[in-house]
Amino acid sequence: MPDDIPDHIPDSGSAHYFDVDEEELERLGSAPRDVTWTVHGSSLSAASDRGVFSYGRLDRGTAVLFDLVPAPPSHGVFLDIGCGWGAVAMSLAALSPEAKVYAVDVNPRALNLARRNASQLHLDNVHVSQPDEVHPGITFDLIWSNPPIRVGKDVLHSILDRWMNRLSANGSAYLVVQKNLGSDSLADWLRERGFVVDRVGSRKGFRVLRVTRPQ
Ligand SMILES: C[S@@+](CC[C@H](N)C(=O)[O-])C[C@H]1O[C@@H](n2cnc3c(N)ncnc32)[C@H](O)[C@@H]1O
How confident is the model over 91-139, as pLDDT tens digits? Predict the structure, then answer.
């Protein structure tokens, strides 16, 4: 039986990366660490920091996404849902300099870091913002995301409802989800919403799902 997405995964009392506020960030302090990674033959480096997902390293799930996802097209409007310090958004922007890449997150430090990383990498095709700041009329040709599973099922579903419904007619979304955090039940839920979901591959306990609209 597939594992289901948990309603909520508590931690041991430290801040969750997805609901840190300014006060919590101040308490954590700042100690930036560079992370280097390779995606489709391009090597990139960017800063991570305390209080932001995947501090000091590339997340294992994100690494699996980069290994299994096809290279992005050269043009289009792309989205990274839950950008953190920006590994996914920076990769899309570097691989497709002609594309426009939206990167959204709710963690203020993540947004600042992602903006700074884009600027350091001279990636002026990245637009980093809070989710509500993206114009509701924009649709996306490509979504790559390591989505915030740990927010719990209801919040995750509302995040995906919001963005998947803005996939363009021929668009594709690639989501990496840990198998034991409910990748199969998430695939079923997306199918119930009318999307076509294929498994691109599985590696190291993660699945990469491709989500498209029926043709
Ligand atoms: C699993 S992490 C992925 C981070 C980054 N993309 C990476 O691959 O390292 C998920 C991210 O989603 C963000 N997040 C949580 N709730 C969100 C929401 N409602 N909208 C957008 N991002 C959210 C978290 O702050 C976190 O940075």
Answer: 999 999 999 999 999 999 999 999 999 999 999 999 999 999 999 999 9
Residues of the chain with pLDDT under 70: 1-19
Q: What is the DSSP annotation of the chain? A: -PPPPPS----SSSPPTTS--HHHHHHH----EEEEEEETTEEEEEEE-TTSSSTTS--HHHHHHHHHSPPPPSSSEEEEES-TTSHHHHHHHHH-TTSEEEEE-S-HHHHHHHHHHHHHTT-TTEEEE-GGGS-TT--EEEEEE---GGG-HHHHHHHHHHHHTTEEEEEEEEEEEEGGGTHHHHHHHHHHTT-EEEEEEEETTEEEEEEE---
CATH number at residue 66: 3.40.50.150
Residue 98 lies in a domain: yes
Ligand 1 pocket residue status of 46, Cβ below 6 Å:
no
Q: Is 106 in the pocket of ligand 1 (CB under 6 A)?
A: yes
Q: Whose CA is nearest to atom 6 of ligand 1?
A: 83
Q: Can you give the residue range of the structural domain that contains 177?
A: 22-212
Q: Give the pLDDT confidence score for residue 11 in this predicted structure.
A: 34
> What pLDDT sits at residue 14?
38
108 close to ligand 1 (CB < 6 Angstrom): no
Ligand 1, atom 4, residue with closest C-alpha: 84
What per-residue confidence (pLDDT) applies to 27? 85
Q: How far is the CA of 18 from the centre of ligand 1 (A)?
A: 6
Is 195 among the domain residues?
yes
